[in-house]
Design a protein that fits this description.
The complex is a heterodimer of chains A (275) and B (213). By secondary structure, chain A is mainly α. Helix content of chain A is 80%, strand content 0%. Chain A contains 11 helices and no strands. Chain A is globular and about 60 Å long. Chain B is 31% helix and 28% strand. In chain B, strand 1 (3-12) and strand 2 (15-25) form a beta hairpin. The chains are: A mainly alpha (275), B alpha/beta (213). At the A-B interface, helix 1 and helix 4 of A face helix 2, strand 5 and helix 3 of B.
């Protein structure tokens, strides 16, 4: 465990000096600042205004940019460490593969999770200064959702990095995974639903296996418990699962999925050639 | 016996890079591994270090399998790559990693570095990748020697060193414990001929010559 924390600590120190980390932090911090400057928090949409409105739009943007940021930066840094022989040198010291792999994952998780959560907190503090109530339940749920979406994409990134050894291919796959989960699955499912080729429950089940969709539903549940914005599917979801289960599912499922991918990645990391 | 390599085969894309390699390295052996590019020298070293899973055969380092017992194996091995990798950690962080993972004192590393005129303390906050090529190589050599391993593996260790630094490096090697086994992958046999007592020549994944000098 000592070495696991050592690897995590050094990965954090190395990452916070990287250019990608500055961009990543500026994007999320800047977004929050932009929301206030442009007065988004003062506008009213669907009855939401102030801090709730601001957090809501922050989550909508997070759905799009957080997965791709995590995928690209993680996959790139791990595969380029391998290509530039950094991995060869660092692993020539007596450190177990378990400590190295999970230490890297822990360090990377802290690095990708913290800026987003700090941006969210920054927004909350700004909102409070503007004179609004603190939406505790919203803040807690959204922090948990950001935790799980970060975890699942980190798990997928580590899996891709161990399967693919070339940086270019790994980046290509990362982009494909992102666009597939963000849009393509939905488009295909809508098409199948319109053609009536598949049972509706199968389509909803497939959609609910997509971590981005789960994040979206989880984020909507709190401000719109009836899920009216997603249309008739809401009845099916709420009748079948119930709103409480839906919230728990949207937090737990991505964590389990991330853990499965990360563990598969670790098994491959141990069983395949390291270089 | 420090290293035992028995009938080792390793292929990439259905082509054998190591094709039935047999090798035994004993305590105090000073070995140069020679051969053209693609002979399998680096693959052999990487298999000994546990980076590659071999297709068949057996590798033992101090009696341990490098895949199954990598930590035990790497406790007794020091490795210097041909090109210093572009590690983004500062020297302080890198030394911290090495101290804690390998149980070496920082003082030992500083002492070895001083012997090659490398002042680490002055550069502690600097990123490793921002050092000059020679400084990086000197630091890696200092770390490898300070580790006091029973097997030292050098992959073209002097490629980035100026003549004076090379001399210091060779002097350091002369000071090594006589029981220490050293393995050089090199193309500059003339420079290290005073330091070796065995020469192994590889070609197309096989050991074709093993000469005691």
């Amino acid at each position: 465990m000592k070495n696991l924390f050592l690897v995590a600590y050094l990965d954090i120190k190395e990452s916070i000096r990287s250019k990608w980390f500055y961009v990543y932090t500026i994007v999320f911090g800047g977004l929050m600042a932009l929301f206030f400057i442009t007065g988004i928090s003062d506008s009213v949409v669907m009855g939401f205004s102030g801090l709730s409105r601001m957090i809501l739009i922050f989550m909508q943007v997070t759905i799009i940019i957080l997965p791709i940021f995590i995928l690209i930066t993680t996959v790139k840094s791990i595969t380029s460490d391998r290509e530039s022989n950094i991995l060869e040198y660092m692993l020539s010291f007596p450190i177990s593969l378990k400590d190295y792999y999970w230490g890297k994952m822990l360090g990377r998780f802290v690095v990708v999770f913290m800026p987003v959560i700090f941006s969210l907190l920054l927004g909350v503090i700004f909102g409070l200064f503007h004179g609004g109530g603190l939406p505790w339940s919203m803040l807690l749920l959204y922090s948990a959702l950001i935790f799980s979406i970060s975890f699942v994409f980190l798990g997928i990134s580590f899996f891709i990095s161990t399967v693919v050894k070339s940086t270019d291919i790994a980046l290509g796959i990362s982009f494909m995974v992102w666009i597939l989960l963000l849009a393509f699955i939905d488009i295909v499912l809508i098409g199948l639903m319109l053609q009536g080729q598949l049972n509706d429950s199968v389509i909803v089940t497939v959609a609910m296996l997509n971590p981005i969709e789960v994040f979206r539903i989880g984020a909507i549940t709190l401000f719109d418990p009836e899920l009216t914005v997603i249309g008739p599917v809401a009845y099916y979801l709420l009748d079948t699962l119930g709103s409480k289960f839906l919230i728990v599912y949207s937090i737990i499922y991505p964590i389990i999925l991330g853990l499965i991918f990360a563990t598969l990645g670790f098994v491959l990391f141990k069983r395949k050639d390291l270089l | 016996m420090i290293v035992k390599v028995k009938e080792v085969r390793k292929s990439f894309l259905n082509e054998y890079v190591l094709d039935g390699v047999n090798l035994e390295l004993n305590s105090g052996d000073r070995v140069a591994i020679l051969g053209p590019n693609g002979a399998g020298k680096t693959t052999l070293i990487r298999a000994i270090l546990g980076f590659y899973h071999i297709d068949s055969g057996e590798i033992l380092v101090q009696g341990f399998n490098p895949i199954k017992s990598r930590v035990e194996v790497l406790k007794s091995v020091s490795f210097i790559p041909q090109m210093p990798p572009p590690i983004k950690l500062s020297l302080d962080e890198l030394l911290n990693y090495i101290q804690k993972s390998s149980d070496i004192s920082r003082e030992q590393i500083l002492q070895e570095a001083n012997k090659m005129d490398l002042d680490i303390n002055k550069n502690l906050k600097k990123q490793f990748l921002k050092l000059s090529g020679g400084m990086k190589q000197k630091l890696l050599i200092a770390i490898a020697i300070a580790k006091k391993s029973s097997l030292l593996i050098f992959d073209e260790p002097t490629a980035n060193l100026d003549p004076k630094a090379r001399e210091s490096f060779y002097k350091l090697l002369e000071e090594l414990d006589s029981s220490c086994t050293t393995l050089f992958i090199t193309h500059r046999i003339d420079e290290i001929k005073e330091l070796i007592n065995r020469k192994i020549y590889m070609e197309l994944g096989k050991v074709v010559e093993d000469e005691i000098l």
